[in-house]
C-alpha cells in the first residue's frame, strides 16, 4: 500500500514545479480497485494528497453500460455523493451526473464524446446544468462546454480544461522512483485548487467507462 498512496519523491516535486499552475495543486492517487472483494467487481479507491482514502466506487460491474444502471461515487464511509448514469441509445456515449440529497437526485452535468468517431485521442465535453428562475436553462448552457477533456485516457495521459481555457486537472502515470512507473491501474490525479474534487473524480469514472478496455474474463480464473 505504501506504493499506492501519493509519495513525496523529489522527482514528483520537480515535475510539479516545472508547471506554473501546479505549484499549489494537489496530487491525488487513483487506484482502479474496488474496496469490495467481490469476484468480477471493478471500482475505484481514491486517496488524497495526504494518502487518506477520500472517495470510493464499489461493486462496479464491467457489464454493458445499458445493463449497468448507475454508478455511485461515495465518500470514505460509503455515503453517496454523485450518481452517474449512461444515456440510452446515445451516439456520443453520453452520461448524466446527478447530485444526491436525501432521497432526491438533481441533474448537474452531461458528459459526452465530442465526435461519434473513435479516434486515437479522447475528446470529451462536459456541460453543467444551471437553474435560472426555477427553469433549467439548457439552451444557453449547452452551447459551450464548461469542461473539456483531451488526451489519451487509456494511456493515463489527459487534461481537463475549464470553460475559460484554464487547466483544471490532469492525470498521468504514477512514479514510485525515477526508474519505476506503476501499472496503469494506479495513476496520478492532479487538481488545481478551487475545483470540486468529487466532480473531477466523477469525470474520471465516466472516462473509464467511455474509454474502457475489453474485459478479459480469464483473469478471474487465476
Question: What does this entry look like structurally?
Answer:
Belongs to the LOR family. Residues 1-15 have a biased composition (Basic and acidic residues). InterPro entries: LOR, LOR_sf, Tubby-like_C. Pfam families: LOR. This is Protein LURP-one-related 8. With 222 residues, the chain is mainly beta. The chain has a single domain, classed as Beta Barrel (Porin), CATH 2.40.160. 14% of the residues lie in helices and 38% in strands. It contains four helices and 16 strands. The chain has a twelve-stranded antiparallel β-barrel. It has a two-stranded antiparallel sheet with strand order 9-10. A two-stranded antiparallel ribbon has the order 14-15. Strand 14 and strand 15 (180-181) form a beta hairpin. The longest helix has 14 residues, at 197-210. The radius of gyration is 17 Å and the shape is globular. The model is unreliable at 7-22, 132-141 and 214-222 (pLDDT under 50).
Amino acid at each position: 500500500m505504501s506504493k499506492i498512496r501519493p509519495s513525496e519523491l523529489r522527482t514528483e516535486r520537480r515535475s510539479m514545479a516545472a508547471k506554473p499552475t501546479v505549484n499549489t495543486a494537489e496530487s491525488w492517487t487513483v487506484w482502479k480497485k474496488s474496496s469490495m472483494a467481490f469476484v468480477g467487481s471493478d471500482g475505484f479507491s481514491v486517496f488524497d494528497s495526504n494518502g487518506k482514502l477520500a472517495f470510493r466506487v464499489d461493486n462496479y460491474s464491467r457489464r454493458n453500460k445499458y445493463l449497468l444502471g448507475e454508478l455511485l461515487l461515495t465518500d470514505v464511509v460509503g455515503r453517496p455523493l454523485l450518481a452517474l448514469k449512461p444515456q440510452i441509445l446515445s451516439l456520443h456515449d453520453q452520461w448524466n451526473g446527478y447530485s444526491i440529497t436525501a432521497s432526491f437526485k438533481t441533474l448537474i452535468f452531461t458528459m459526452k464524446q465530442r465526435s461519434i468517431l473513435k479516434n486515437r485521442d479522447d475528446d470529451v465535453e462536459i456541460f453543467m446544468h444551471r437553474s435560472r428562475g426555477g427553469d433549467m436553462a439548457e439552451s444557453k448552457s449547452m452551447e459551450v462546454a464548461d469542461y473539456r477533456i483531451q488526451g489519451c485516457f487509456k494511456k493515463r495521459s489527459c487534461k481537463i480544461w475549464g470553460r475559460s481555457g484554464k487547466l483544471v486537472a490532469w492525470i498521468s502515470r504514477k512514479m514510485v522512483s525515477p526508474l519505476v512507473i506503476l501499472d496503469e491501474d494506479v495513476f496520478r490525479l492532479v487538481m488545481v485548487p478551487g475545483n470540486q474534487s468529487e466532480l473531477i473524480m466523477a469525470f474520471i469514472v465516466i472516462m473509464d467507462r467511455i474509454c474502457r478496455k475489453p474485459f478479459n474474463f480469464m483473469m478471474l480464473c487465476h
